[in-house]
Amino acid sequence: MTMQDTIYFDNNATTAVAPEVVDAMLPFLTTLYGNPSSIHHFGGQVMAYVDKAREQLASLLGAAPSEIIFTSCGTESDNAALRSAVFTQPKRTKIVISQIEHPAILNTAKDLERSGVTVAVIPVDEHGRLDMDFAKEEIDENTALVSVMWANNEIGNIFPVRELAEMAHAKGALFHTDAVQAVGKVPINLATDGIDFLSLSGHKLHAPKGVGALYVRRGIRFHPFVIGGHQENGRRAGTENVASLVGLGAAAELAKANMEKENTFVRSLRDTLEQGVVAAIKDVRVNGDVANRLPNTTNISFEYIEGESILMLLDQFGICASSGSACTTGSLEPSHVLRAMALPYTAAHGAIRFSFSRYNTMEEVQFTLEKLPPIIARLREISPYWK
Length: 387
Ligand SMILES: Cc1ncc(COP(=O)(O)O)c(C=O)c1O
Prior knowledge:
Layout: E1 7-8, H1 19-29, H2 41-61, E2 68-71, H3 74-87, E3 94-98, H4 103-114, E4 118-122, H5 132-138, E5 143-147, H6 161-170, E6 174-178, E7 197-201, E8 212-216, H7 231-234, H8 242-280, E9 284-287, E10 297-302, H9 307-315, E11 319-320, E12 322-323, E13 325-328, E14 331-334, H10 336-340, H11 345-348, E15 351-355, H12 362-381
Parallel strand pairs: 1-11, 3-4, 3-5, 5-6, 6-7
Antiparallel strand pairs: 2-8, 7-8, 9-10, 10-15, 12-15, 13-14
Helix pairs in contact: 1-8, 2-8, 3-4, 8-12, 9-12
The structure holds pyridoxal-5'-phosphate.
């Protein structure tokens, strides 16, 4: 391994586009550029590929193709689900979400709050686990929608979505899950999972950025978020992003074929790194619900130092990871997820997320395990918090 190689351990931020996906997309960026809605053969022939992509994605999810709406990203899918559920059920004025949702949900909920919707927010404990008693109490006859993510992007926690869907249905409410981080990593079968809406995003599963999908269970009323032409059966207007959605279909097929690998090979990369860090470095803690999380994600706090300094030193060796901080008003604050878990200050500031994919190697993990201990020792020497 040379220092010039990039070691990409930030797959929850985005993933490499799979070579097979690029190959599948290329004709639609070159020769097959017709509009699938055209009457002539040149455009019309493209619709068959849109249909195929819909089938490939539906097959990964255990859904019917007619239940899939292609969108521009996970964020759009989240917006569409929340807004449709509120719009189609005017007598129900409340939505229930969790404290550690992605901003696509949190800020859409905030926006809906400004138009009179009540938002109940399920808190989490120090491991990021939901307070299910709170959920049970808050989900009531006035609830239009419960929206809880399938898996969290920062700590990887997997949430009891089937149980939450049942709780929602018992009160006549709908259930949505932001499964952007779960699709392709954990088995999903929407034919039996009892979920009404599910959001996903192409760029988290080796398809390109700027394409996503929303699953809407058959029979659920849906009000479109993007309004205009008749595309997507009148449920999402705008000329289809054919190349990207063909890429998403190909990525879905690959994800289905590689699901086992996520839970064996990718999990072993994650576990080797995590166990190596815990064995070699003192004052570290693994954040999240360790027994119940995505196989590709670990979030580790290196206490008494700043995550950003670790990232910068790792970057010198080509190693890309991510910290749990967001730059708010010029200062580095721990993310809303770590704050919700009430991690001690010294742990929240030193949190690093490593997120793996099937394109990573054990050699990369070993290289990182060599480089990390001296980086941590060096930063602790100059840390005012280090005893
Ligand atoms: C859990 C979750 N939801 C939604 C999104 C947004 O997806 P997109 O980038 O496709 O808008 C992300 C992306 O980071 C995510 O991790």
